[in-house]
Amino acid sequence: MRVNVLYFGILKDLFASERNSVDLPEGATVDVLLSLLRGQTSKQSEAWRTLAVAVNREYATLSTVLREGDEIALLPPVSGGAQGRCGA
User: Fold this and answer.
1) Domain housing 63
2) Distance from CA of residue 33 to its chain's centroid?
3) How many domains does the chain contain in total?
4) Is residue 80 one of the residues assigned to a domain?
5) pLDDT by residue (tens digit) across 57-83?
6) Is there a domain that residue 16 lies in?
7) Residue 12 or residue 49, greater confidence
8) What is the pTM of this model?
9) Is residue 86 in some structural domain?
């Protein structure tokens, strides 16, 4: 089966892409997908441990079973931001 993966934050840099189609065996879970993708990157990132995953725009767990055509968004934590007061 084929799923569509959307990369955000540092993962977009690691994969040099905003999206990709990935072939998986039937019955694969989010955990299987993440393991496959981690193995495709040469640089290991802390983002993999604290990643939020959404399947078809709903948050998912590692045990969520994926289906043909699913859209999986990989959302690493956001850091940084402006210092000081807003509107100052």
Assistant:
1) 2-75
2) 9
3) 1
4) no
5) 999 999 999 999 999 999 988 765 555
6) yes
7) 12
8) 0.83
9) no
